[in-house]
Amino acid sequence: MKQRERRPGQKKTSGPAGESRRDDRAGRAPKPVARPAVTRDTVRETATPAAVSRPLMTRSGDRPAERVPVILESLGAGDFHLIDSGDGQKLEQYGPYRIIRPEAQALWRPSLAPQIWEKVDAVFTGDTDEEGTGRWRFPREALGETWPLNLLGVDFLGRFTSFRHVGVFPEQIVHWSWMKEQVEKAGRPLKVLNLFGYTGVASLVAAAAGAEVTHVDASKKAIGWARENQALGRMEKLPIRWICEDAMKFILREERRGSQYDIILTDPPKFGRGPNGEVWHLFEHLPLMLDVCREILSPKAVGLVLTAYSIRASFYSIHELMRETMRGVGGAVESGELVIREAGLDGKTPGRALSTSLFSRWVPK
């Protein structure tokens, strides 16, 4: 799902930010899985800013109230939970599969015995850098490329990608649950914009709750995966616009058109390179992106949500940016970290908290 796993490094790749580890498989090694470019990281490389731009708006008025630090925590949900972590790795349950992936922030030692870590279905091996590629080792038996998963009542496909991601970032469940609640209690169809939408789980959650959704991603493969997820859940009739386009170009055009949204989710990469040479740098381009997002929020908007992965910064950097961007509109900005808490083998035994990403969220009250 961000930090994301969350991803340092700025290598030039054909996909957005990747993750990998060294292949240490014993015996006969399975071939790399197909469609490696369909990872969130790969998708992120193509999510680049538009060549056209505009000056930042001059904002006046009081800054919104603040709530900091806010720690949004998940113990797992649906078919996912974090079993254990340590020694730079994490042990996760995704539906029927127990998986080991790299996790640089797991500086401690694992809590569970080594034999538990050995009884896994898949281990990602390769370059540990966020944008490096690698392979999956399957200790028990060769597994298919995809398998069904469910979160918040939405069915979707997990996929073993060459960038160590599996098609969902479960720490985002806290944002999705919040969004689902807002949509369900609104008493009217809310318009939701999902920027850098990846495989569409958030878009499906919002649409299933009753929202009219616009899903934007620059990767055709990501859009294809999202449509697969929609078909898997027999949700083809839900009101979702799938837009394959650069996110900045899209929102700048929406601003010119006077389009408005009640909830905006934006989950940009740290670095991206587009097919026409466009380059996205989070620290350089995020102020304009938020500025435009404010302009396309409706007068009765219920939230603007930003998640940031793999950046060397305090959450205060995006918190203060969000407060400056939202000057004069009232409400509050709450910022902090998304964390996933270990839940043990049974998925119900709380353990240590693993930080995954930074976030900042404006709400009207």
Account of the 3D structure:
This protein has eight helices and 17 strands. The protein is α/β, with parallel strands linked by helices and 365 residues long. The strands form four sheets. Strands 1-16-17-15-12-9-10-11 form an eight-stranded mixed β-sheet, with helices on both faces. Strands 2-3-4-5-6 form a five-stranded mixed β-sheet, with no helix packed on it. β13 and β14 (279-281) form a beta hairpin. α3 (173-185) packs parallel to α4 (201-209) and α6 (247-257) packs parallel to α7 (282-295). The longest helix has 14 residues, at 282-295. The chain starts with 39 loop residues before the first helix and ends with a strand.
Enumerate the strands of the largest sheet in spatial order, edge to edge or round the barrel. Answer: 1-16-17-15-12-9-10-11
Order of helices and strands: HEEEEHEEEEHEHEHEHEEEHEHEE
N-to-C span: 28 Å
Strand residues, percent: 25-35%
Class by SSE composition: alpha/beta
Q: Mind telling me the C-alpha Rg?
A: 20 Å
* Quaternary organisation: single chain
Number of strands: 17
- Portion of residues in helices? 10-25%
How confident overall, as mean pLDDT? 86
Biggest sheet character:
8 strands, mixed
Task: Enumerate how many helices there are, as a single number.
Answer: 8
| Residue windows where pLDDT falls under 50 for at least 5 positions | 1-51
* Overall geometry: globular
